[in-house]
Amino acid sequence: MPAPIDLHEVAExxxxxxxxxxxxxxxCMSTACLxxxxxxxxxAMEESIEREDLALxxxxxxxxxxxxxxxxxxxxxxxxxxxxxxxxxxxxxxxxDIITDHIRDHKPVETNLLDHAIPFFSSQERxxxxxxxxxxxxxxxxxxxxxxxxxxxxxxxxxxxEDVVETIRASGLRGRGGxxxxxxxxxxxxxASAGDTKYVVANGDExxxxxxxxxxxxxxxxxxxxxxxxxxxxxxGATQAYIYVxxxxxxxxxxxxxAIRVARRKRLLGRNILDTDFSLNVEIRIGAGAFVxxxxxxxxxxxxxxxxxxxxxxxxxxxxxxxxxxxxxxxxETLANIPTIMxxxxxxxxxxxxxxxxxxxxxxxxxxxxNTGLIEVPMGVTLRHIVEDMGGGIPNGKxxxxxxxxxPSGGCISAEFLDTKVDYDSLRNLGSIMGSGGLVVxxxxxxxxxxxxxxxxxxxxxxxxxxxxxxxxxVQLHQILERITDGAGSRQDLRDLEHLCxxxxxxxxxxxxQTAPSPVLSTLHYFRPEYEELIESEEVAHA
Amino acid sequence: xxxxxxxAARPRPAEEPHPSGDDRFxxxxxxxxxxHYGQDQLIETLHLAQEIFGYLDDGILIYLARAxxxxxxxxxxxxxxxxxxxxxxxxxxxxxxxxGTACFVKGADDIVAxxxxxxxxxxxxxxxxxxxxxxxxRCIGSCGLAPVMxxxxxxxxxxxxxxxxxVVGTAVASGGEA
Lengths: 543, 178
Description:
The complex is a heterodimer.
Chain A: H1 7-18, E1 23-28, H2 31-35, H3 38-51, E2 58-63, E3 75-79, E4 83-87, H4 92-104, E5 113-114, H5 119-122, H6 140-144, H7 150-158, H8 161-171, H9 183-192, E6 199-204, H10 213-220, H11 222-236, E7 240-245, H12 250-265, E8 281-286, H13 296-303, E9 327-331, H14 332-344, H15 346-350, E10 353-354, E11 357-358, E12 360-367, E13 373-378, H16 383-390, E14 400-405, E15 411-414, H17 424-429, E16 438-443, H18 448-462, H19 468-485, H20 491-507, H21 511-515, H22 518-542
Parallel strand pairs in A: 1-2, 6-7, 6-9, 7-8, 12-16
Antiparallel strand pairs in A: 1-3, 3-4, 4-5, 10-11, 12-13, 14-15, 14-16
Helix pairs in contact in A: 3-4, 7-11, 7-14, 8-9, 8-11, 10-11, 10-12, 11-14, 18-19, 18-22, 19-20, 20-22
Chain B: H1 24-34, H2 42-53, H3 58-68, H4 72-81, E1 93-98, H5 101-105, H6 108-118, E2 125-126, E3 132-137, E4 149-151, E5 154-156, H7 161-173
Parallel strand pairs in B: 1-3
Antiparallel strand pairs in B: 1-4, 2-3, 4-5
């Protein structure tokens, strides 16, 4: 076996390397910026540095997501001890200008400057995404240079597992997958369960349309996830872990796969991690396009190679999970919080956010907004701050109509509730949920019954078919919504719609069915006149 | 299923060339050996088979069932459960329009409708002349660039029905491998 990595030596080497260059150019190479043409720009800058003979002056670093995806490709130019400048819409020509004008001639390229003092950036508090857009995700040294694996090293060499569980409990961290179950309690359940074989599963089946925070963590900071998993496994006594990733995220799979292999070689995973008695094997499992697999019992069935259908709980996975053994499933974003909590302490984490809702939440801002992309904010900021200040408001002079959170399991929040604090409990009181963090803003042109139909179609397609309320109910609900949006609905349809929503919600087997009516119920609650208008116009036509 | 089983625990199927002489099956065998014929590797193996063959036909499913010692009904059941597995040969070009929430709000449905009409292909199928497979996806996670479309592996941002028709039309007109 090779000797384990010396984290402190690597971190020091990385630091001295970092400040050797007067200029560092960080280029976002995440999915969104790559789609916007980041790769040709990167190569142009690479060649330009070569051509201008600046190789000893400037270092070009590929990084993960910087957040403001709608302005990509983004590039940051850092001048040692002086300043940091951000550029937007960097194509190959702009990339060359940045090297020749800014770095060679010290004259920033005015046309593409992006002010990083705007609220989109300044209102963020980055915990989960602290390294995203900062480090090179493909180099473990880059992560170690940003205090990576330090928490794990301290935990497995100097802490008792029960103290780790206690720290997480004290931090108040709640599951970021949507339901918000206290993470410390879940860990304690797995730690207390009997058996030699226990499993930890990272749920990266981010199927909620409009959400891509987990993908960003897996692609841009894969070692953070591995470190979180290792700490969870140590605290709970698990020796095998799985990362379940959507097949729609091939780049995440590729980067995680590489990260696991490197970590194993450096003795940060595998047998006798860092020469301790703690061993952990991590494997990736790839989904195959089934939304229901985000539900934990369905996810386990899928890992076992079967159809991803859920089963009744209890028994909960911590009692009977994968292959009958105790299993704990945590969301990717949840696990990505762990290394920082262990490094900076439970009190620090609990001081962020609001009571019972500690820490930060990553949101994917999308829809009718000026600024769209990924943000991480303390729990409890208002929706208005996110939409108007950070998102820059609604473009084209249109008015805000609704914000959709929680995807097909969530609801729409109307303008009168814009001052609501965004946290688990406040959103639930409004009939929506936090969900995994998709936040889609809609302007006045969007029809709410159409949105309800859109989500119902989604739930209908994704229903696994195991229980009839969900299998048949979602089809019936979709048909009624179709009649209504076609203008052929009746008053009775509206009554049936509401009644059936309650039946499906109350009698379905798993979370998918239980929450499938939420988009309908919430739009009926806040935007009922729109439904009635569609029906009345029909009745007038018949009269 | 409470017990973790591998086919290797029982007599293993003899390793000889596939009767059809198609040596692509050797790649599948290699992967199966690597994972010790673990029955929990069914989904991974289906992914690999689809990558190698382009789609899954009955012959492939039966081959996997025998190799992993699983009932063919289970292999078929798993393969048909997941949306990403396909049972028809793909067209020369593949176009996937994202219909996630952000793309929907920004008019993805119009893009699907216009492509569907222009290339006489129903979403989720391949055109009769085999020139184009049109699919929809539930969010590919590039919501900041909505509406998004993936044409032959390239993600295209900020699409409109007009831009989509143009770029897909050009690809299809260029014939085979673009």
